[in-house]
Specification:
By secondary structure, the chain is α+β, with helices and mostly antiparallel strands. It is built from 9 helices and 25 strands. The longest helix has 27 residues.
């Protein structure tokens, strides 16, 4: 293969500037020539050979050996475009186009991708899956009937009288010597020991917790079991019966304001102190019993059934996935202690196809993880390679070259480009796909063509579904008097928002 000795001409801005300088230099160094009817001897010899219908190789070798000057090459170019030689030149180019400079075997078939059609197909796949899952979810989305409330608590017959006394002494001046300074812990937790701290606590008497300080009724009052009574501290067990009151009328966030009333023996009024009663998290741990359906995808409304799913506030439903290390909170549309209606937002992403864990936090505790299957929405991304130029002209054509031609051969060329040696996306550079991303298609696009004796194909093209692409080679070839510019496009698809590589 013989490299062309003349400078290259391009339609790019920098090359055009160079061309302008060359034209200016030629104007200064070479006198303008008006071609006459009688061409120079070298040009005349080339035209005579053209008339004899030579092979492209023979014609190009003769022109090369003739050693044409720049002006003579321009003259030959001009004359070959005239009607006198047009047919002969067309015949020469037809022969050149038919030369077998292309691949010896048919190149592998690559799958071109209609990006718009592929995206529409992905949207349709998701819509079909969502409709199927939504149909399966319908039975679970029916809110179950409210559970029967616990029967009214059997009150101690004396409680009504005691609470009437409490209401009277609460409004009057209190002369009790008891001083209450605090509690440990700060909040009274059902089923847990509460230490009431103070001074002059007297002899062991009664300790009552009245839930709802604003409404001290007998049915809201609960006697505490005394564990120990001293002059500065009283140890009592917070009654678990308070939890039944919550089940009948849920406490907001599992907490309720209350009063603790300490009435030592012989003290007619005693002292009271405001506190907060909190449900015992160990008694209200949420349990997920079923998820309908146990497969989810963005846009799906599904149902969770179980126990203690709320403790008086909106439950927090979280989906997490160990495969990706991602998690997020789903939206609750409706709920009670045994049922939650949940929405997976349309724009939900970052999750791969596969197992995920669903948990519910009711404000007091978090459930064990319940396994579900997640099906993500896919997205499509395209990558384009650098352009590849393959061109091969006679000496005269170089002077008016229509495309950038970095490497030329007199009788034909073949150029290679490692099209996707590495890819960069959102700041990441990678040489292979991971996390369920895969090749969806590979296309070679012609950006420019001059003549039919040129083409592009791939070597080591990745198959659809492959995860490796770095060895892909874009090959461009051109016979004499032909040229082509190509660009490769790699299309990949995978779960939306998930990194394409490790």
């Amino acid at each position: 293969m013989t490299a062309h000795p003349f400078p290259l001409i391009s339609d790019r801005p920098a090359a055009k500037a160079l061309l302008s300088l060359l034209v200016l230099a030629s104007a200064l160094l070479v006198p303008t020539m008006a071609w006459s009817a009688d061409p120079s001897p070298k040009v005349k010899a080339a035209l005579d050979l053209l008339d004899r219908n030579p092979t492209p190789k023979a014609f190009l070798e003769a022109v090369r050996k003739a050693g044409l000057t720049r002006v003579e090459a321009q003259e030959l170019e001009k004359l070959m475009q005239t009607p006198r030689y047009e047919a002969a030149y067309r015949a020469l180019r037809t022969k050149a186009e038919a030369e077998n400079h292309g691949p010896a075997v048919p190149p592998p078939t690559t799958r071109g991708v209609d990006l718009q059609a592929l995206r529409q197909s992905i949207r349709q796949e998701h819509a079909t899956r969502l409709a199927s899952l939504q149909a399966r979810a319908q039975s679970g989305l029916q809110q179950p009937p409210a559970r029967m409330a616990s029967p009214p608590r059997r009150l101690d017959p004396t409680m009504t009288t005691r609470m009437a006394t409490f209401s009277r002494v609460r409004a009057a001046t209190n002369s009790s010597p008891v001083r209450l300074t605090g509690t440990q812990p700060d909040q009274a937790i059902t089923g847990v020991v509460l230490v009431i701290q103070g001074r002059d606590l007297g002899r062991q008497g009664e300790v009552t917790i009245i839930v709802g300080a604003e409404d001290p009724r007998p049915e809201n009052a609960f006697d505490c079991r005394i564990i120990g009574w001293g002059s500065e501290a009283i140890h009592v067990m917070v009654p678990e019966a308070i939890e039944d009151m919550h089940r009948a009328r849920p406490f907001p966030n599992g907490r309720r304001s209350a009063l603790v009333w300490v009435k030592p023996e012989g003290d007619l009024s005693g002292r009271w102190r405001p506190i907060t009663v909190t449900l015992n998290p160990d008694h209200f741990e949420p349990v997920i019993e079923s998820v309908s359906p146990p497969e989810m995808t963005p846009g799906l409304r599904f149902a969770i059934r179980g126990r203690n799913l709320t403790a008086g506030a909106e439950p927090q439903v979280k989906l997490s996935q160990s495969l990706t290390g991602m998690w997020g909170t789903l939206r609750s549309l409706g709920y009670n202690a045994e049922w939650i209606e949940v929405l997976v937002p349309e724009g939900w992403d970052r999750f791969r196809a596969g197992r995920a864990g669903l948990t519910v936090n009711n404000g007091l505790a978090t459930s064990a993880s319940f396994a579900v299957d997640f099906v993500p929405v896919e997205e499509v991304v395209e990558f384009r390679s650098d352009t590849l130029d393959a061109c091969s002209w006679g000496l005269f054509s170089i002077l008016v070259g229509a495309i950038d031609c970095p490497s030329q051969g007199i009788y034909g060329v073949e150029e290679r480009l490692r099209a996707f040696e590495r890819l960069t996306h959102e700041g990441r550079t990678f040489t292979g796909l991971a996390n369920d991303w895969q090749v969806a298609g590979l296309t070679a696009r012609e950006l420019y063509r001059d003549g039919r004796g040129a083409g592009c194909y791939f070597e080591h093209a990745p198959a659809v579904g492959a995860t490796e692409f770095a060895d892909t080679v874009l090959v461009g070839w051109a016979n004499s008097f032909n040229g082509i510019r190509c660009q490769a496009t790699l299309t990949i698809r995978g779960p939306r928002g998930v990194p394409m590589s490790r």
